[in-house]
């Protein structure tokens, strides 16, 4: 078992705590701008957390750049944080676009309760169906009556004979029935 | 057998094309699939008889023990023969049955053949999971076939019912299969049956398998889907609901009965369900007027009898069951096909309206009468032989239960005789003259031959009972108890013969008094229709789902987020705290006694790594807390920015220059973009006076912060393994050809992650664009030479010629209102723009060995573009980057992923970089790492992202504002 010298530094831990606490506080708001700012703060906190999990501070992970006696900081955690930073940028742009659109449509950027969810909850309270399914409705018809309406696309082009004397054999061979 | 299944699959795929080419004659070609299955079964008859039936195995997912296992034993042989022969005849029948211009014929043909293939696979598969896969395939295909006329309510409803009921059973069966596989340690059907589980596993497996079989084979109480499924086209009824799909459940019972018949739960379920189904089906059949419905309820009844015979567990009953299985497939399929002919000839299936068909359709009538004779058990037909064997089996059963079942089966047979006669009389019998004669159309031989062939087969096999005896006995012998018995036409004057005669007499009497029986049924209290109960049940289920949704889905985003975060605190948070009590973490123990380390319970901390961290963290903390309290949008944004720059400083102090660089750049881009959007939003956040909810938010925030602090302290201390990155420095130089380990990690070691990430960037950029560009996102980039609508501001001198040729850049005069122009800014932009581009290229190329790389370089270019846009307006952006962002994004992703393909072509792993030394005449040897191209792709994607964001949130918002007649501040 290898035990690493990974004792984290208290100020970094504190920074993570503050970033998460303030970020979550903003995240629970209704204004999309504040939600976004909260997300950015939480993102910063998460990046810092990743970095701390990678181990203590060290030399920049560039080969041959530093004194070999100083251990390098963990490059894997840094690579992950790097991608995370750029994705946060993309997400920020996306939520901003959403906030702008919301403002354009509603005149504000606040997230309202979902109408459909509220409608379903309201109907469920009254025990009404949230949607009507014509197929599931009771018709009151018996199977027999229903079956009488169902017919396949059957070949219709054959000769018709109405009675014992009627009907003339068609030209095609292999047909059944007396002429 | 795999080849047979594959042939079906190919034919199913080809079916639409074939139907387009050949019309309904395509069915002739398609019939080759099932015919091949039947021919294959016939060709293996001797081998199967000797117990040397073929077996095939193709490994599929070895890690999961999943293989394509097939084998042909007696039961599979019988089923494959039935499925193949009836399938081929039904397909031939289809070619004459459907109108030439029938709607959806190509889909129908494809699905029907696919169904035949799934069925062939199901009965030959020797792997439990494979059985399940084919089982569900038949369910899905049957859904499509029943709902063939999707425009009709009855069809949709029947199809939905069938799939819900059979899938519910199928899922239950899957539970049984998993129990079987896990408890026996093998997924081979043959091995499971040879060594069945014992104890509770046997009971659970038996009950679950029976649930699957009962739903598929329309046993009470799930029998109702079968009569409703008569909404399917008649050939489907003949194939699926007589010969094939409903027999899948019977097959399952027959397959597992040798292993489970001794389990009491199995036997009792089989006896009760089978008996009730048999009697109920027969009883209901006596009242139907639609010929198909008479047959459907009759099928329910016969399926009950089959479950009873094949599931009961004695060899004699099993042999009778196998014989009945074959006989039923022949006569019932034949009868359905006869109904199809009648329907085609007269346009009705109502037995009250048919009259005089016997004279008009002699061949059809003959086939119908022969098949009916077999169904009601008249000698010398297959049905008679099977039923005699059944009665004989119960009569000689050692268990007293056998006597009861003898009575049940006899009673069921009386009903069968009655509804059989009702069918034959209804279709072909003479009527009182007050019935209006129906118009009868002649039918082609191709339509009448298949039912006739099946009916005659029922006669032929019965004339040679000892052959059937010989062929079917091997499977019956695998059952646990009793003598196998014999199939015979004449066993002498036995009590069984007397019973048969009694059954026939009583059945005929019941038929004779059919009017009274109908009236009696009408008057009698009848149990609630199972279909109605099902629909009520589904309604209740919907209500329950709505209640659950209404309680949990409140539609409030803060509520959802709060719930998620509270779960984080209560679940993982408490678990973490609980796990930390008591013993020290490995890291804590190792750090004990070192200078500067202080302990908090089981955790160890140092105050700081570098003193400067303290200052930076104070700045971050202040920024974050003030941002949370800010009421002004812009202020909040800048304070969050402060925290972000602080983070960059922390990265730098931690020894992560790449991160610091990227963080600074993204923070700047973020600020620019935020400001661009915020100019359209109100300056202040709206008031939220609810103080109580604010304290709840504070509480959740603090709790989450504490949990995260605990987590980040415990996580590094809990590590006990060498980090995977320990070897990265060596690998980076040796394989990646670079000294900047983070960059090599991104473009080489973990390049797939990066490909995923830049794909996310692409999606996000597209999302931004589609949110802002409402109608369309044209590929046209706005340029100065386009006749730009002048800004609303009057600053531009009227009549000034719009420049047609560019002589200088950043000439904002013609395109930007004067109050928005800043001469200083324009001049500075002219100075720094090229420098920034150069810096970006520098960062890009040196990124492999020193801080920099594609991300940072792309962001620098993005910033340069942002500067140009801010200085010169949206037309300047078009001039600076006269390309469509989508093109840049696409090229970037293509380049990054393309490097992977090049590496593959060079015989290496995907995205593995390789070094190329290029000899150029002047420069000498150039050392080239392929991953540079990967980084170039990343570079382009980041530029594309920023460009897209600037175009959407910058230029397009400008334009929308101008269209609204407002000058953007």
Question: What do you see in this structure?
Answer:
- The complex is a heterodimer of chains A (179) and B (969).
- With 179 residues, chain A is an all-alpha fold.
- Chain A is built from five helices and one strand.
- In chain A, 50% of the residues lie in helices and 1% in strands.
- Chain A is elongated, with a radius of gyration of 36 Å.
- Chain B is mainly α and 969 residues long.
- Helices cover 70% and strands 3% of the residues of chain B.
- In chain B, strand 1 and strand 2 form a beta hairpin.
- In chain B, helix 19 packs across helix 23.
- Classes of the chains: A mainly alpha (179), B mainly alpha (969).
- At the A-B interface, helix 1, helix 2, helix 3, helix 4 and helix 5 of A face helix 8, helix 16, helix 18, strand 3 and helix 21 of B.
- How much of the sequence of chain B is in beta strands? under 5%
Strand order of the largest sheet of chain B: 1-2
Distance linking N and C termini of chain A: 97 Å
CATH architecture of the domain at 10-62 and 70-125 in chain A: Orthogonal Bundle
Q: What portion of the residues of chain A fall into strands of 2 or more residues?
A: under 5%
Q: What is the fold-level CATH name, i.e. the topology of the domain at 10-62 and 70-125 in chain A?
A: Helix Hairpins
Number of domains of chain B: 3
- What would the principal axes of the Cα set say about the shape of chain B? elongated
Task: Please outline the major beta sheet of chain B.
Answer: 2 strands, antiparallel
Q: Radius of gyration of chain B in whole Å, from Cα?
A: 40 Å
- Whole-number average pLDDT of chain B? 86
> Count the strands of chain B?
7
Oligomer: heterodimer
Strand count, sense and barrel status of the largest sheet of chain A are: none
CATH class descriptor of the domain at 10-62 and 70-125 in chain A: Mainly Alpha
Q: Estimate the helix proportion of chain A, in percent.
A: 40-55%
Name the average pLDDT of chain A.
77
Distance between the termini of chain B: 75 Å
Shape of chain A: elongated
